[in-house]
Amino acid sequence: MERRTEVAQMLGNWKSCKIQKWREDQWKRNEKERRKRLANRKQNVVYLAPRLTTIREGREEHALAWAAQIYLGLFYDIKNIPDARERLVSKTNEEIADAFICGFFRYAESPNIPKKDAIIENWLKGRISSGPHFLLGLSVFLRHSSGMNIPEESLPNCIGVVAISLGFHNEVPGYDETLASWMLQEIRRNPTVVKSVLREMWILGAEKNGGELPGFYQISQDAESQRFIASLSADVLKAGINKNHIIVDKLVSVLLFHDQRTALSIGETELARNELSAKVRTIWSTALFVIDPGKYLDPWRTLMSGEDAALWNAIGLIRGARHEMRGDIMLTTAQRAEVVALIGKRFPNVDHPSRGWNGSQNPWDASEFIADQIRLIAADCSAEAGIQLERLEKDGSLASYHDLIRHHRAQYEKQQRESTFSFASPKKVAEAISNQAPATPNDLLSYIVDHLGALSREIARTQRERYRAYWNESGHNLTKPKHEEVCSGLLAEDLQNRVQAHSLIVTVEHHMIADKECDLVILLGTERLLPIEVKHHYNAELWTAWRTQLDRLYTRDAKAVGLGIYLILWSGETRGRMMPRIPNGLKRPSNAIGLCRALESLIPEEDRYRLRIVVVDISKP
Fold it and tell me: Does the N terminus or the C terminus of the chain have fewer Cβ atoms within 10 A?
């Protein structure tokens, strides 16, 4: 303090600070725990030091099992030590820790390791957390990580313990992945041994252990093990397991992807049983329908008229499980149409609730499944897809899906046209260049946009005062613009006069897909059209109708090929004719040009070539 006078001045008469009691108590507890750990560590060293040789040789099972749990970080008081070896050192010392690690490697060579039958028995009883099980799994982990093989005589036992250890949480990085890698390696090296162990475990698991299949997920994820898992699945199903429908579904799905002939044979045998539950019977009936619809369609239809629970098992099998490298089952277009017809009439189309939900067997989940099947039908490029979509659209029991079916049918027809598209002939191109009939859909779009621009200038800037036709009048005074429907009719008339020489027809309230009517439509022959959605600038949907109406409802028509025009009638802002709330980031437009630019900025750049904005100025001079 003599050297730091400024500090002394700040401290004044302060001499000491009393430590609060809770801090003192906490320090005492920590100190007590520290001394206890040191005492335990000392006792451990005293006990283990004479046994270092047998520990290194992997023969001190009790001590090694205790140390394995420390190495894996399973005790609460060493979880904050990130390094596995340091965890051992904290409980013993460096020499003993190294001896334990050597013993972990050697343990798999011991004749006293847990045997396969005992491992399976303990697993069935839910007692898989015993020390020797941890120890044997750790031995496999370390040996595989170091490139060491497992002794042949220990292989079945190690396969059993690794299978039940997969997914087990511990503090060793990469532990689960390494064990899974070892099992997949052994499937390629010793498939018979692995299959023998897993077959026994899967059969017992399906019948007695709540439907567990140890190793199923890891094997199903490995592309090189698909033939193995198909063969194993067939063996387990042939054993007659039928109590757990979830297990049956998983194994049958594997066969549908990899061995349908075997699935057909087993399925015919299983369906002859009388004791099958409705769920298991549905799974097998659906599988046979998938494989041989000509023979098994009628029995499947009959079963599908049963309880809803059976329907969900059919849905689950067809939909597959993507997390197990199983996507949608391969069906013909006709089969998918049958699925839509039979299941769709039982589950009307409904949206997902806005507040969330539980489970995956809700009405909206069924609707999503049906929608996926409709989409897959439309994705088929064959003529059969068109026939089936037309059939489904006419099915009265699918009324709630008709809009969706029409939409996908329109997309299918668009794809069909695009696949057969041919460029315009030189003659047609020449006609388009010379301002005659448009040669392509994009030519038609550009052509109409140009004419609407010219029409807007004619309405606003010529002595004809054509703009007055778009207004209601009181004497010679303009009061307010006429309704959008009336203005659309006037636009149609004005536009028709400009384009009729090129065999174009302008229609009002044209019927489109989903029973909707578009304000204006330009028709070019019978196979091409261009929708135009018309709005006053003060319409409440000014900023969104280009998306929610024009693009969502009208450009989806197959004849529109995704093109459309959003036309706004600008009459000037005044009381009663103010634009709705301006979207964030936009400045309030003050004229027709500004409004056009604001609306264009809302359309994604990649869509601006096909969705065009036109603002027609009908405001008073």
Answer: C
